[in-house]
Specification:
- By secondary structure, the chain is of the alpha+beta class.
- It starts with a helix and ends with a helix.
- Among the domains are: about 240-315, Thrombin, subunit H (Beta Barrel), CATH 2.40.10; about 320-535, YVTN repeat-like/Quinoprotein amine dehydrogenase (Methylamine Dehydrogenase, Chain H, 7 Propeller), CATH 2.130.10; about 625-730, Immunoglobulin-like (Sandwich); about 740-939, no CATH class.
- Helix 5 crosses helix 10 and helix 9 packs across helix 12.
- It has twelve helices and 66 strands.
- The strands form 16 sheets. A five-stranded antiparallel β-sheet has the order 1-31-58-57-56, with no helix packed on it. The chain has a five-stranded mixed β-sheet with strand order 23-24-25-26-27, with no helix packed on it.
- This is HTH luxR-type domain-containing protein.
- Keywords: Membrane, Signal, Transmembrane, Transmembrane helix.
- One of its GO terms (molecular function) is DNA binding.
Length: about 950
């Protein structure tokens, strides 16, 4: 399909569309987000709103001042005030608040707000207050509307303005401060004085004053609207009875938003005609509206008796769902005979004609339509219901059943009284008889369920099946088969057999498939890609596509809803960003788009329908910002972070600290779908991947200067301005100039000290070596002495052993000879040869008295005991030879018996000899003779 063809057809249909009247008024409910007290962790009631230059929202709440950045809520407490009634941000960005018995302002420290109370100034000035309800900035001063008076605050101090009476309300209108006093009417404050506005004395308590081109508009708390001229005052209208108005806000488009005590929220046009009424379970969460505020995205913040609603009234979408009486998933919609019919899986619903303030549902279920609705078919001026239970004719608020088999659709034929109906079992002929339609037969040869029927022309009919392909029926002028039915599927060019649907788009047949849109070539009987749609939509599945008959083609694709628009010079482009708001609501079963007219498009939703008004323009390219909300630092080993002011110009941390940066974007037009990207210069060259996380931490950063940059990506794919925060990771002392000087000094000292230390080391090593050599020599000498001593000791022991052996041998010899002598003497006594025996005995006597043995003994004894015998002989005391022998034997520790044998005396003789020796040696009584002789050996 060529773009030229599309352009021509759209322009042709547009001419017809322009001729149609647009009396249709669809009143759905805005997309909304509800915040309850658990979300913002404060009181259930809020009273006022204000927005800072950077987009942050501030809310006066029962529990304090609330701040919302699009991601999280934060609460600031006010001392000695149970409730905050009002909040105002002046031209300098100072946040002023007023509440119960308290007024003051918040100072932004960078890491949060600090409250500065003006309570002391009030006390000093003798001013008593109970409640503060409004705050204005006027002529360089701040005005507080107390319960009964005006109080002004400036650098000059705080003071009460003298009032003509009891103040009941005040208003800032067109740079004029107008006050209403009970029973006195309206006054304008000029130069500190109240000037009365004539003809206003009888007015009831006003809740709003606005100025239009010709007059001032007064709105009372009971709904009376007045027009005030210099010449007088006129009652314009009364909005409603038995209602109390809490707040009125003139919207940027000229409409009025009115919050009531028990009737919810009203949206009125500039002429005070009601456009929309929202109340509990019908667009908002509560029927009591305390305050209304329009933010910089033109959406409404609504303070309820319990919680806060955010209404996205700037969007060209609203919902028609169960809150308006529509039950179930939407399947088809039709605007017919100035009535709206909506079909769901629970039946057919018709819009009711009810009072706009009624709590009744806007739509009601038509009796007999309960169950699955597939389509609402219009044939000329007649309406049909295609239903799971069969086919019905719709007549106003009633249904007439014309067929029992589950019905999908009806299609008009070229025959005036003949239509075709697709049902669960094929295609049927319906003829009109007696003002009703009756089935008259089947299209032979086709028994497949026929959900989609499309006439290409008067005689070519296409039927598409969800998973078997598409069928082409060639009919004659009587709608009878002219040729056999042709079945097309994957074998004929489609990517698969499933998800093939036939559409007649602005007079031209197209076929959607599992992958892209196709055209049919009647000559080759093959299907090929539609290059026009391929270029715009790619190969994703298109589940429904409709034209508005003017310059737009609407479609539902896998990625969501979109529109193809004609631009200049016959070019086309697609738009999908705006519709990201509604994609999550769109149904995924038998999706359908219903085009009522150019400004009313209905899209089937999981819960009812989505209404789209293309005439309602919405700026998706609005600039927005990302705000660094907090900077925190802590020791790496400690999880406790300390807040650091975000306006700090020179933040310095050390390497052992962590830094955590939190950020947000107050882009309330889709704050649920914000993503962020960041980088840390110069550490990161590229930006991070987009993520919904709104904080970043860094640990163990190398020392140096850093700049953290962050930006946001909104729901439309637009990027915010970059926000940045700079900080420094402290250079360790050893990397500073001081450290370098220390290094150089140490290096010079080392250079000087190295030779000195080397000489000292040489001397020390030489000394150590010398001492070591001395020790080694000493050890060797000791080893030599030890070896020599051991050798001498060994020799001494050997000689001692020899001496002992000789001595013992002498003893034995003596004993033996003595025994022989005794025996011989005995023999002689018994009569032996006397002469011979005597000779033997004499010989033995000579042997016993022979001193030769002593010489041998003396030699060995002196060898062992170091000339001991010479020592005895050389003593001053002269010892006899026998005494010397006795001393020698005693030195050897010999017993008296052994000594007796050696000296050839008796044991008694030995004892006497010992006694004489002691006496001769002049030993004391207690002295031991043997010990003395041993000690003598050591001298």
């Amino acid at each position: 399909m060529s773009s030229k063809y599309i352009y021509t057809v759209l322009m042709f249909v547009a001419l017809n569309a322009l001729a149609q009247t647009n009396s249709l008024q669809l009143r759905g409910i805005p997309l909304r987000t509800h915040f309850d007290s658990e979300d913002y962790r404060a009181g259930m009631q809020s009273w006022d709103f204000s927005q800072s230059e950077d987009g942050l929202l501030y809310v006066a709440n029962n529990s304090g001042l609330l701040e919302f950045d699009g991601n999280r809520w934060k609460k600031y407490d006010i001392p000695d005030a149970t409730k905050i009634r009002t909040v105002m941000i002046d031209s300098k960005g100072v946040v002023y608040v007023g509440g119960q018995n308290q007024i003051g302002f918040f100072i932004n420290t960078g890491s949060g707000f600090q409250f500065k109370t003006l309570r002391d100034e009030l006390d000093s000035a003798g001013i008593n207050i109970s409640e503060i309800w409004k705050i204005f900035e006027y002529e360089g001063k701040i005005y507080f509307n107390a319960e009964d008076k005006l109080i002004t605050y400036s650098t000059d101090g705080i003071e009460e303005i003298n009032s003509p009476g009891f103040l009941i309300n005040s208003f800032m209108v067109d740079e004029r401060l107008i006050c209403q006093f009970y029973g006195l009417g309206l006054f304008e404050l000029q130069n500190g004085k109240y000037l009365p506005l004539p003809n206003t004395e009888s007015l009831a308590r006003l809740v709003a004053i606005y100025k239009n081109d010709q007059a001032y508009i007064f709105i009372s708390e009971f709904g009376d609207v007045y027009e005030y001229y210099s010449s007088g005052i006129d009652l314009k209208t009364n909005l409603l009875d038995s209602v109390t108005i809490n707040d009125v806000l003139k919207l940027k488009n000229g409409d009025y938003a009115i919050g009531t005590q028990n009737k919810g929220l009203l949206i009125l046009d500039s002429e005070f005609s009601i456009k929309l009424h929202l109340t509990k379970n019908k667009g908002i969460t509560d029927r009591t509206v305390k305050a209304v505020y329009q933010d910089n995205f033109n959406n409404l913040w609504v303070a309820l008796n319990n919680g806060i609603d955010y209404l996205k009234i700037s969007l060209p979408f609203n919902l028609i769902n169960e809150e308006l009486g529509i039950e179930g998933t939407g399947y088809d919609a039709r605007y017919f005979d100035e009535s709206i019919y909506l079909g769901t899986n629970n039946g057919l619903f018709l819009q009711k004609d009810i009072n706009v303030f009624s709590d009744e549902n806007t739509f009601e279920l038509m009796p007999g339509s309960e169950g699955q609705v597939y389509k609402i078919s219009q044939i000329d001026n007649e309406l049909f219901l295609n239903h799971h239970k069969g086919a019905f004719m719709i007549g106003g608020k009633s249904l007439e059943k014309i067929h029992d088999i589950g019905s999908w659709t009806f299609e008009k034929t070229s025959q005036p009284n003949l239509i075709l109906g697709g049902d669960y079992k094929g295609i049927k002929y319906f003829e009109k008889k007696n003002d009703t339609w009756v089935p008259t037969g089947d299209v032979l040869g086709l028994t497949e369920s026929s959900r989609i029927l499309v006439f290409e022309n008067d005689t070519i009919l296409w039927m598409s099946h969800g998973y078997r392909g598409v069928y082409r029926l060639e009919l004659d002028k009587n709608m009878q088969l002219k040729d056999e039915i042709k079945h097309f599927n994957k074998r004929h060019g489609f990517p698969s057999n499933i998800l093939i649907s036939a559409y007649k788009l602005d007079g031209k047949m197209i076929f959607t498939s599992e992958q892209g849109i196709y055209n049919f070539n009647p000559k080759s009987l093959e299907f090929s890609k539609n290059t026009f749609f391929e270029e715009l939509l790619g190969d994703e599945h298109v589940s429904n596509i409709k034209s508005n008959g003017h310059n737009s083609i609407y479609y539902i694709q896998d990625a969501g809803f979109g529109v193809i628009k004609e631009e200049k010079y016959g070019k086309f482009s697609k738009e999908t960003s705006l519709f990201k708001h509604i994609n999550k609501y769109i149904s995924d079963d038998l999706q359908n788009i219903s085009v009522f007219d150019q400004n009313n498009i209905l899209i089937t939703a999981k819960d009812g329908f989505i209404h789209f008004d293309p005439s309602k323009k919405h700026d998706i390219k609005k600039d927005f910002s990302t705000v660094i909300r907090s900077v925190k630092a802590s020791k790496i080993e400690d999880s406790t972070f300390v807040n650091i002011p975000v306006n700090t110009k020179e933040l310095v941390i050390d390497k052992n600290q962590s830094i955590k940066i939190e950020y947000a974007s107050p882009y309330y037009d889709g704050f649920e779908d914000l993503n962020y990207s960041y980088r840390l210069k110069p550490l990161d060259e590229k930006w991070s991947k987009w993520s919904s996380l709104n904080e970043k931490s860094y640990d163990h950063l190398p020392f140096g200067d850093y700049t953290f940059e962050v930006k946001a990506l909104n729901i439309y794919g637009m990027e915010s301005k970059v926000s940045e925060f700079s900080f420094e990771v402290l250079t360790p002392w050893y990397a500073t100039w001081t450290g370098r000087i220390v290094y150089i000094s140490i290096l010079l000292i080392i250079i000087v000290m190295i030779p000195i230390l080397q000489r000292r080391k040489y001397k020390a090593e030489t000394s150590i070596i010398t001492e070591q050599k001395k020790k080694e020599l000493k050890i060797k000498d000791e080893q030599i002495d030890k070896l020599y001593s051991e050798k001498l000791q060994t020799e001494l022991n050997l000689k001692n052993d020899q001496l002992t052996s000789i001595t013992m041998q002498l003893v034995k010899n003596k004993e033996f000879i003595q025994s022989v002598q005794d025996k011989l003497s005995s023999t002689l006594d018994k009569g032996g040869s006397a002469q011979e025996l005597k000779r033997i005995i004499n010989s033995i006597d000579q042997e016993l008295s022979d001193e030769d043995y002593w010489d041998k003994f003396a030699y060995h004894f002196d060898q062992v005991h170091g000339n001991y015998l010479e020592k005895l002989s050389g003593m001053d005391i002269k010892l006899s030879p026998r005494e010397i022998k006795l001393a020698a034997f005693l030195r050897m520790n010999m017993s008296s018996k052994e000594i007796a044998k050696l000296l050839n005396i008796t044991t008694r003789g030995v004892e006497l000899a010992r006694y004489r020796l002691r006496k001769k040696l002049k030993l004391e009584r207690e002295q031991n003779l043997v010990e003395y002789l041993i000690e003598l050996d050591n001298t």
